[in-house]
Design goal:
Elements lengths: L5 E9 L2 E4 L4 E2 L2 E3 L3 E4 L4 E4 L7 H20 L5 E11 L2 E8 L6 H8 L4 H9 L15 E8 L24 E5 L2 E3 L5 E3 L3 E9 L2 H12 L15 H4 L6
Antiparallel strand pairs: 1-2, 1-7, 3-6, 4-5, 6-9, 7-8, 9-13, 10-13, 11-12
The structure holds glycine.
Length: 242
């Protein structure tokens, strides 16, 4: 058992060079207040106002860099995205899992604040030039993503329903990213998976980002769909502490 809040830290890695992105937190349970069954993730926010600034450096130094160095030592250097899923326990950061991919839905929030070109960063990792890259530039403020899930998700989701109000473009400070959707022959966009789409809100702080995300989600209409209403709420209200 690991006590303490969870953190997802995505790092671009090229051999022993590690470039962390902003730490994020996702919400795995389907219902508000972390109720109900586990899902692939119902929402996320970044940055984490309750996480001390030095913790990202500590995770990089104590967790990610040693893993990257060990892979180099074993003759299989890693190049790509290393995702550390951690619990910040009373004894410090503890690893829950690693993935060698971006995490969903944290990525939707993290990339919303990244100002540096992502393609340039990934290309540098792929060509062994990550160490020479300038420091990443980030927007000030916060980003919140909220997932709209199909009826019955995370069980077998109901699919094939027409979705309204989900144009990808930004609107009222929020944007829509499609995931489990498809375009029907008649041009209508329909649900085609469990986690159908996510909205992303950006704002000066977490409260403003939440407001933008939930304002945008209010215009999405999909019969039977559901979403969590408390993404980032505890953090915005200062209710998370280490
Ligand atoms: N956010 C969880 C995952 O991508 O595995």
């Amino acid at each position: 058992f690991l006590d303490g809040p969870e953190v997802s830290l995505f790092c671009v890695v090229d051999g022993e060079t590690v470039v962390p992105l902003l730490p994020a937190q996702d919400f795995k349970r389907v219902g508000d207040g972390d109720s109900g069954p586990n899902t692939g993730g119902m929402g996320a926010y970044t940055p984490l106002p309750w996480l001390p600034d030095e913790m990202t450096g500590r995770i990089v130094d104590e967790v990610v860099k040693p893993v990257a160095a060990e892979l180099v030592k074993r003759g299989c250097p890693f190049s790509g995205l290393l995702y550390a899923g951690l619990a910040i326990t009373s004894h410090g950061p503890a690893v829950v899992e690693f993935n060698c991919r971006f995490g969903d839905p944290e990525t939707q929030a993290v990339l919303a604040l990244l100002e540096s070109p992502l393609g340039q960063l990934l290309r540098a990792a792929a060509t062994g030039e990550l160490a020479a890259q300038p420091a990443l530039r980030w927007s000030d403020g916060a980003a919140v993503t909220v997932v709209v899930a199909a009826e019955n998700y995370p069980g077998r989701p109901r699919v094939g329903d027409v979705i309204h109000g989900a144009d990808p473009g930004s609107e009222h400070g929020g944007s829509v990213l499609h995931a489990g959707t498809a375009r029907r022959d008649d041009g209508a966009v329909v649900s085609a998976g469990g986690r159908v789409l996510s909205v992303v809100g950006v704002g000066a702080d977490l409260a403003a980002a939440r407001e933008a995300a939930y304002r945008r989600i209010a215009s999405v209409r999909l019969p039977g769909s559901h979403f969590r209403t408390d993404i980032g709420l505890a953090a915005a209200e200062g209710r998370i502490s280490l």
